[in-house]
Structures are given as C-alpha cells and as structure tokens.
C-alpha cells in the first residue's frame, strides 16, 4: 500500500522549539482541560502521594542523596556493575580502589528519611547491606566505614559485597533475570500488567542480533501461555528494540533493513499476534526515527494489524517531530482500516542527542532543550491521540503527577487508554490517582528482564531522565519541595522560565569562531540532496595545471583516475623544473608586503575562503569522493575539517599577528615583540586528506605571513587545484601562493633542495620525512624549518574492565574507517588475555558487518585503497599472514567493481613487538597481554619510536592516567575511538618518528611558521613618557 507522506514530519526536525511551543500552546488553549482544572487535580494527586509516602523510596531518595551533579552518584552504580564483567581479581581490586579513592562521600551526609536508602547507598559504595546494618544511624561517614572495612577485610571481601549490592539494585529495577521469573513476579506483585523489555544494548554483530531475536521469540512464547483471548491489552506485552535485532539498523542501510531486519520483525510480530501478546516497537535515537517508521509501515503492509489491535509503536515527546509522527500513524492506520497502539514517552537519549547535534555542526537540535517544552509537547501529543481514538489505542508512560493529571482530565473514563510507568519507579503518583480518579485500566509496568550485568546502560538512561534537578521525580523525592511548588502546569507563565540557549553545532565555538557546517546523513533527504548536488558539480571535468603567480603553465596532461571504479575524473599537468625557479622568484618579490599586511588582513582572506568553501561544498565533496575514494561521511568530514582549519588559523592570526605584544620594562622605555612570516614555505600534502591537510598547511603558512609553493600528492591534484583557485578568489595574491603538481622525486626534491626555501611543512611517511630532513640539513644556506607529521604504529590498550560493546565500536571505527588510510588509524589492538576471546570475537563480528565498495553508494562503509601499488602491497601482506595461519577474520561484504579494494582483516600477533612497520590500510593486528603487564606494553610502544595516537579502554581512571603519563605519544584517547581529531579541540600531531610538532589545529602551530622580532624604544628621546608626566 501507499504510505502517507512524511513532509510534515521532516519539516519539524530542525524547526525552532520556541515556534513549536507557541503553536502547541495555542492548540492546547483551544480545546481540552484548562490550567485551573489540572492544577486542582494535580494538587490532589501530589498531596495524596506525599501523604502516603512515595513508594519508589529507593530510586527517589537515592536521586536525592547522590545527585548526578556529583561523581559519586554515577560511581556508586558503575562500580558494582563493572565488577560483574571483570574476570581477574587483581583488576577488580584495582577498580575498587580507583572508584572509592578520593570520592566526596562526606558531602552526602544527612538523614535521607529512608532505611532502605541508607542501606542501598552504603551497599552501593561498600558492598553488602548486611555488613552495614549495625552502622545505620551511626555518626561514622561512609568514607570512614570504607577505610575501616578495606583495612580489615581487603578488596576481595568488598568485591563480593559489591555483587550483593548490584543484586539489590537489580531487584529494584529488573523484574526478573528470565522471562519466566519476570512473569511470576508480575503476577505476584498485585496483578499488574507489564510490558517486558529484554535488557541489552544494540547488537554489534549478527550473532548478537540472532541471540536477541531468540530471546524475544522465547519471551513471546512464554507470555502466550498465560494470555487470554480477546482484548490483547488485557494481557502482558513485550517491547522490542530494532537496534537489538540488526547491527546495521541505520538510515543509510535501507536494503539491509528491508531484506534482513524487517522479515525478523514480521516473524516476531506474527508470533505475538498468534499468542495475543501486545507488541510495541521501541523508539530509539532521533536519526533512527524514519527507519522506525519504515519498519512499522512494513508490519502494517504485512497484515500484522489486520483485525488485531495489539501492534504498537513508541513515540518520544522530546522529539520535535512527535506530533507529526502521531498524525502520520493515524493516517496510516485509517488508510489500512486497522487499530494500532501507541505508547507516548518523554524520551531517554537527551544528552546524546544534544552532543551529537553539536559535534555534527548542525544548526538546531532534533529534541527540545528545555524540559518544560517537552512537557507541553507531551500534552499536545496526548491531545492529538484523544482525537484519534478511532484508530489508535494510546498508552501514556510518565511519572510526572501533573502530566498524569492532564491525561486523566482529558481522557476520563470515556475514551479507552492506559497509563504506564517504569518498574521500580513512579508508584506513588499512579496509586494516588487510582484513589482519586481511577483510570479505565490498570497501570501497565514497563519491566526490564535480564541479568544484572546488563542493567547499567538502562539504569543510566533512567537516571538521566529522572535524576536531573528539573525532573519531577527528582523534585518529588525532595522533602523540601512543597505540593504547591510541584503542582505547576507547564502552560503557566511561571513554568516557562527563559533559560540561556544551548549552543548549537553552528554556534559551539562562538565568539571565537564559527563552527563548520555539518550534515546529518541520518536525516532523510539530506544525503540524497548532497549526492544530487555532487552530480551536478561533476558536469564540469576538473584539471590541475601548474600555477605560478596566477599564470597557468603548459605541459602534457595525464588522466586522474577514480580508485573505486577506474574511471577518468580529470587531468593533471605536472610542473617542469623551470617552474620551481619562477615560483621562488615571484614569492620572494611578493612575500614582504604580504607579511607587512598584518594578521587581520590575512585572516579576512582565510575566513572568506572558508565561507566560499562551504558555499561550493558540492564540488569539493565530489572531488574527495571521486579522486580520493572518500565515502560520503568521510567527504563531509574532510570539507568540515578544511573549513575549521581556515577559521581557526584566522582567529589565531588575529590574536597573535595583528599587533605587537607589549613587554615589561623601565620607565621611559617601550618594549614590543612582533611576529612576522619566515619567508617562503613549501607545503607537501598527502593524498589521504587531500583538502583538509592541504588547506591546513597552506592556510597556516599564508596567514602567518609567508609565501607558499604547494606540492600536492600525485594521486589527488584536482582537489588541491580547486582549493588554490578558491584561495585566490578569496583575495590571496597569486604571487604568494603557487601550485606545482608533480612527482615527489622530481618537483618535491627540487623544491626542498633549493636554499631559498625557508621552511617545509610535510605530511606523509616517516621515510620521506627523513629524506627531507637530510636534504634541508645539507643545504648551503640558512637553517630551514621542518614541520612534519608522519605515521605511526598506533595501539589501543584494552583491560578487563572495558565494555566489550564499546571496544568493538571504537576499534572497528578506528581501524577500518577510510579503509584504514589515516595517520591516526588503529594498527595494533592489545587486549588483556582474560577477556580477549570474547572481545576479539565481537570485534570480528562487527567487522563482518562492514560494506566494502564504491563510495558513491551511501551504504558503503569502506572505500578503495588509493592506487594499485598500495593495494598490491597490502594484499600481499594479508596473503602472507593468511598463509602463516595468523588471519583471524576477514570481511566478506563486497559490492565493488574494478577498483583497488582490500577487505578488512584481523591478524593475530604473538607479541606486540612483531609489528615492525605501519600497514597503511584496513588491517588490524591483535595481541594479548597478561594482568600486571601494562608497563611492559607501554615500554614496547615507546620503544617502537613512533608516537602518534594511543587508545585506552579501561574503567579504572588510574590506569588511563598511568598510561597517559608514561606513553610518549602525541594524542591519547580514553574510552572512545582514536580518529577524527577536531580542530581547536583535539590538536593533532605526534612525536619521535611520528612528527616534529607543534600540533596542527592547536594554539602553538602558527608560531612555527613565524619569526620573532623584538623592538625596544627609548621614548625619553622623543620628549619623555607622557603617562608619567601626567601624574
């Protein structure tokens, strides 16, 4: 069937939240219960709940005792959960010492008003509650109790006690470790209906997805045994997460979603229909909203909802698109003639949504940034659902008494609906409503099922939802907050406080500089529009020719080849040796005036170039994809980094090159320090970042006051030529910026050897950097500057406390993104032997999900190797390892053509020392280490001489700090991937064999391109010190 259009949904995605809220308030004022009615009912519910004593004492008071604004609130839960994953006792003991030491436990002293809270708080920090019964009510602080217990019993006892603490938490928040146990408990606990959720995070591998599918199927079968015929909403139900059922549940993977994910979901939904078990499709991150709708529409098309109202979808009210989504679901249901369910929730990924939008450079957020506006949107969504009763059965999941009051007043007992809450939370308000205005149906409990080791991620999301100071649950648990203070309708003017706006991705670095504009490739229409504009930009073929003082030089053109397809994408004419002398002569004539023009003048040109680059991004995206083999995501990142370099260096030039720095001195004397350009720099850039590093090098040298001769990589001259044209159009004089494409052995060597060159900025191999260094040192002339960033045998150290899912995500991204052709890419994974088997298996499984092929397909994850020579060398290396039995796994998903491709591979090493050189491609080596051997690992990494990037995955802060202190590397990344350094945020560069420094994109970089000049003036010779005479 034809599905309703989604234009209205997409229009709201980045719309102003203030405008949406204004529209919502107008709609709420037109119909439905007014503010006064809700306040009266809300006061009654809150007063009754407070009078009865809040039943969710544990979570409510724990939030009040250990707030998220303190480290302790998070540490208490992380410790016990982490210990469940640590197999070796020494590491577990170290984790205990690390998480307890230095915490400010005394700050949480005071009467919480709850024996259970005291018990749990002590238990979380120290272990078993039974060990502490005699301490309750004592004057001892938790810290003093801890120290006494550790001295008396040691870490092993505390470790075992922490397991007991986790069990206590699990009983509060998890309905049961198995579905059978959860059903028994739900039936026993007052006969509440439940919607069961199988704990666990997104699948990383096909094996993960299969395991989750089996768990859901078994849960549906178990629930079906007790299900009654007729109304499915009179039975227990189940909620399923689509990300758990497929490792590539993403917008850019439509084929795999349709062919691999949807059939699994249809099978589960049909089983639920057969068993009469209501099934909800859970909502997840905002970039998965439309895939979410695709799957739901696929279930409708499959006839799952025909004559059965048990199929449901979850909508998050904190998403700006929520109201339009509800209208779309209603239109879909009416068109098919079915009745479906819809659960309305507030939303649980708020912090990650905000960060993602900022990191991606987006102009606005997909979610509301103020809680009050989310509450208003929730009410508007409820209002819409009230008008869709003919086709939607609504379920309202909330713990907010005022929201509950609004739902009760709006729906009453006339319109069918149900209320829902989380297991372990929110009983008080719902029980109070049942006494005052009983709803039509029993409250349904959203009930997690699983082991305690899977609890933490779920629990953190719940705390982020309800633990913030603005949260109703948090405020309700605070005894100092009165009924009147709680009974505030979000529509009231008093509730609509004007909070300072959060910085968007665009404004993140203001006022210093504007952030580069990004694109959300998970936003429908965005990647399609980019690819369309890129296709239009390709209509004019590119050509790179030597440019000296703005004059194009002739020669014999050669074809530039797309490494993914073998197609010709343009032509390049290499410079001849006589062009070197001409460019040097023109540079020396023009550079002094360029340097005297000042930092502000030069910064204006770079900022203009950055704006022009964003305006012409389609052209540069197409070149990055066609010439360098970049995927769409990598091409977008490339253009953004280039823009950031230009704006960041412009800001630095304004700060340091625009006016002299006044220095101290005696009365009657003026002392100043000036920075000016060194003279003429040669910029030799690589093919793997042919725009970002090219413009970073050239832009830095120019804005510091130098003339520049740019020698791009032989494989990527077209994008370099386009960048030079752009700089000239932005106002950089052609006489100070020249382009000489050609081979490094000829043009590059001639440039470096000329004694009139004042400096070389180079990115490439260590071997070539050595040649350049020797050549510069052997010249007969002034000592030249060399700024070099080279490669590295980049390692990631993983200990037994690390989260396997996080390691798999970060290792795969670090090793295989950009086909491993990054200086920063992970080459050597070092995993503690206690957890190596499962960890490596998960990484291999995640690697197997990567799609290799033509980057013109937005579904491609891994593009081509840059040329045939590089491809042959990497393939031969992998073949040798395969023959030796050292290849652990290789990716198999290939959808390429005649290009230069190498499938990602995982190779076993007996020792970290076995890797002698950098393999610049999609090859990840794995070695293991024993507990207690971390210093030997660091020594081996240091002994290699390379020092570019190093990753550390550990939940022991002291381990990460120890590695960071001892490792001689330029960039250390803790519990994240180790690629994609952001300009001005993570300055990038190595040491030792990996580079000279200073770091690109950092505050010291421009200084290396400059000479310093001190001017000391005796101002008494000009009539004295005017300021002194004015005294």
Would you spell out the secondary-structure blueprint of this structure?
Blueprint: H1 7-12, H2 17-30, H3 35-52, H4 57-65, H5 71-83, H6 89-100, H7 115-126, H8 142-153, H9 155-173, H10 179-188, E1 193-198, H11 206-226, E2 237-240, H12 254-275, E3 279-281, H13 289-301, E4 311-316, H14 322-336, E5 340-345, H15 350-359, H16 371-386, E6 392-397, H17 401-411, E7 418-422, H18 427-436, E8 444-449, H19 455-466, H20 472-477, H21 483-486, H22 526-537, E9 542-544, E10 547-548, E11 551-552, E12 557-561, E13 568-573, H23 577-596, H24 599-615, H25 617-628, H26 632-656, E14 661-663, E15 669-677, E16 680-684, H27 692-703, E17 707-711, H28 717-729, E18 737-739, H29 744-753, E19 759-763, H30 766-778, E20 785-789, E21 795-798, H31 804-816, E22 828-832, H32 833-848, E23 852-853, H33 868-883, E24 887-890, E25 894-895, E26 905-908, E27 923-929, H34 934-943, E28 946-947, E29 949-953, H35 957-966, E30 971-974, E31 991-992, E32 1010-1018, H36 1026-1029
Parallel strand pairs: 1-2, 1-8, 2-3, 3-4, 4-5, 5-6, 6-7, 7-8, 9-13, 16-17, 16-19, 17-18, 19-20, 21-22, 21-29, 22-27, 23-25, 26-27, 29-30
Antiparallel strand pairs: 10-11, 12-13, 14-15, 15-32, 24-26, 28-31
Q: What's the arrangement of strands in the largest beta sheet?
A: 1-2-3-4-5-6-7-8
Radius of gyration: 32 Å
| Gross morphology | globular
What oligomeric state best describes the polypeptide chains here? single chain
The average pLDDT value, as a whole number, equals 88
The major pleated sheet works out as: 8 strands, parallel, barrel
The total count of strands amounts to 32
Instruction: Determine the N-to-C terminus distance.
Output: 88 Å
Count of helical stretches: 36
State the secondary-structure class.
Answer: alpha/beta
Task: Work out the strand percent.
Answer: 5-15%
Q: Bin the helical content.
A: 40-55%
Question: Uncertain runs with pLDDT below 50, 5 residues or more?
Answer: 54-77, 100-150
């Amino acid at each position: 069937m034809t599905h309703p259009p989604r234009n209205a949904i997409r229009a709201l995605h980045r719309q102003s939240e203030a405008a949406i809220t204004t529209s919502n308030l107008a709609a709420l004022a037109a119909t439905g219960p007014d503010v006064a009615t809700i306040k009266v009912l809300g006061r009654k519910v809150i007063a009754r709940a407070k009078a009865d004593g809040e039943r969710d004492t544990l979570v409510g008071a724990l939030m009040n005792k250990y707030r998220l604004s303190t480290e302790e609130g998070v540490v208490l839960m992380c410790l016990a959960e982490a210990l469940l994953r640590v197999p070796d006792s020494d590491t577990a003991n170290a984790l205990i010492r690390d998480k307890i030491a230095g915490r400010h436990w005394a700050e949480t002293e005071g009467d919480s008003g709850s024996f259970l809270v005291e018990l749990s708080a002590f238990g979380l920090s120290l272990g078993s509650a039974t060990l502490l019964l005699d301490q309750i009510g004592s004057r001892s602080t938790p810290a003093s109790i801890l120290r006494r217990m550790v001295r008396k019993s040691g870490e092993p006892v505390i470790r075992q006690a922490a397991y007991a603490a986790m069990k206590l938490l699990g009983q509060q928040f998890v309905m049961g470790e198995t579905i059978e146990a959860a059903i028994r408990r739900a039936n026993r606990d007052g006969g509440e209906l439940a919607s069961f959720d199988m704990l666990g995070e997104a699948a990383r591998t096909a094996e993960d997805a299969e395991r989750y599918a089996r768990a859901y199927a078994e849960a549906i079968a178990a629930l079906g045994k007790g299900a009654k015929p007729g109304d499915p909403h009179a039975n227990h139900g189940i909620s399923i997460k689509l990300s758990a059922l497929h490792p590539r549940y993403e917008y850019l993977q439509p084929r795999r979603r349709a062919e691999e994910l949807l059939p699994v979901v249809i099978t589960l939904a049909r089983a639920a229909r057969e068993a009469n078990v209501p099934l909800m499709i859970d909502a997840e991150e905002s970039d998965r909203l439309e895939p979410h709708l695709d799957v739901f529409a696929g279930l409708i098309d499959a006839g799952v909802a025909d004559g059965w109202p048990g199929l449901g979808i979850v909508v998050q009210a904190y998403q700006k698109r929520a109201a339009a989504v509800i209208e779309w679901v209603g239109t879909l249901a009416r068109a098919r003639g079915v009745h479906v369910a819809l659960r309305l929730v507030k939303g649980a990924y708020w912090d990650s949504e905000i960060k993602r939008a900022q990191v991606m450079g987006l102009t606005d957020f997909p979610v509301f940034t103020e809680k009050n506006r989310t509450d208003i949107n929730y009410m508007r969504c409820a209002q819409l659902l009230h008008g869709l009763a003919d086709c939607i059965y609504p379920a309202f999941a909330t713990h907010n008494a005022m929201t509950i009051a609004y739902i009760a007043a709006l729906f009453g007992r006339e319109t069918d609906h149900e209320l829902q809450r989380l297991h372990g939370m929110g009983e008080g308000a719902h029980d109070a409503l049942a006494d005052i205005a009983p709803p039509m149906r029993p409250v349904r409990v959203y009930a997690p099922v699983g082991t305690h080791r899977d609890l933490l991620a779920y629990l953190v999301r719940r705390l982020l939802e309800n633990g913030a100071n603005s949260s109703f649950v948090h405020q309700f648990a605070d005894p100092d907050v009165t009924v009147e203070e709680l009974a505030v309708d979000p529509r009231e003017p008093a509730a609509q406080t004007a909070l300072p706006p959060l910085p968007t991705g665009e404004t993140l670095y203001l006022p210093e500089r504007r952030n580069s504009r990004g694109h959300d490739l998970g936003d429908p229409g965005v990647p399609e529009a980019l690819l369309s504009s890129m296709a239009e930009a390709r209509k004019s073929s590119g050509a790179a020719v030597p440019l000296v003082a703005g004059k194009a030089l002739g020669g014999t053109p050669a074809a530039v080849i797309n490494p993914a397809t073998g197609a010709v994408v343009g032509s390049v004419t290499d410079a001849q040796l006589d062009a070197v002398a001409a460019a040097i002569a023109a540079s020396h004539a023009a550079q002094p005036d360029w340097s005297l023009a000042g930092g502000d003048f030069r910064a204006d040109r770079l900022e203009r170039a950055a704006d022009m680059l964003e305006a012409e991004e389609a052209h540069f995206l197409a070149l990055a994809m066609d010439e360098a083999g970049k995927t769409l995501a990598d091409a977008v990142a490339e253009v953004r980094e280039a823009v950031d370099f230009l704006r960041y260096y412009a800001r630095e030039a304004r700060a340091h090159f625009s006016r002299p720095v006044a220095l101290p001195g005696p009365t009657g004397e003026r002392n100043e320090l000036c920075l000016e350009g060194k003279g003429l720099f040669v910029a030799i850039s690589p093919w793997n970042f042919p725009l970002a590093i090219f413009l970073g090098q050239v832009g830095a040298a120019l804005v510091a006051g130098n003339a520049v001769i740019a020698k791009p990589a032989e494989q990527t001259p077209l994008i370099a030529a386009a960048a030079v044209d752009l700089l000239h159009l932005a106002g950089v004089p052609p006489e100070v910026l020249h382009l000489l494409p050609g081979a490094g052995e000829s043009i590059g060597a001639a440039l470096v050897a000329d004694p009139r060159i004042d400096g070389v900025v180079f990115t490439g191999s260590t071997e070539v950097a050595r040649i350049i260094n020797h050549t510069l040192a052997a010249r007969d002339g002034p000592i030249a500057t060399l700024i070099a960033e080279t490669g590295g045998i980049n390692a990631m150290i993983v200990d037994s406390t690390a989260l396997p899912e996080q390691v798999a995500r970060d290792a795969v991204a670090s090793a295989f993104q950009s086909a491993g052709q990054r200086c920063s890419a992970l080459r050597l994974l070092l995993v503690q032997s206690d957890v190596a088997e499962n960890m490596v298996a998960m990484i291999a499984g995640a690697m197997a999900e990567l799609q290799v092929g033509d980057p013109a397909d937005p579904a491609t994850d891994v593009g081509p190797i840059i040329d045939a020579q590089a491809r042959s060398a990497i393939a031969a290396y992998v073949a040798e390892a395969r023959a030796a039995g050292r290849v652990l796994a290789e990716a198999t998903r290939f959808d390429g053509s005649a290009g230069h491709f190498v499938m990602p591979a995982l190779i076993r090493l007996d020792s970290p020392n076995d890797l002698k050189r950098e393999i610049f491609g999609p090859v990840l080596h794995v070695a293991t280490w024993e507990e207690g051997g971390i210093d030997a690992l660091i020594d081996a990494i240091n002994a290699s001489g390379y020092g570019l990037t190093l990753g550390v995955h550990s939940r022991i802060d002291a381990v990460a700090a120890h590695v960071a202190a001892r490792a001689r590397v330029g960039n250390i990344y803790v519990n994240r991937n180790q690629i994609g350094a952001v300009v001005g945020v993570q300055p990038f560069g190595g040491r030792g064999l990996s580079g000279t420094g200073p770091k690109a994109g950092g505050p010291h970089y421009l200084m290396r391109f400059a000479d310093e000049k001190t001017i000391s003036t005796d101002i008494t010779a000009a009539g004295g010190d005017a300021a002194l005479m004015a005294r």
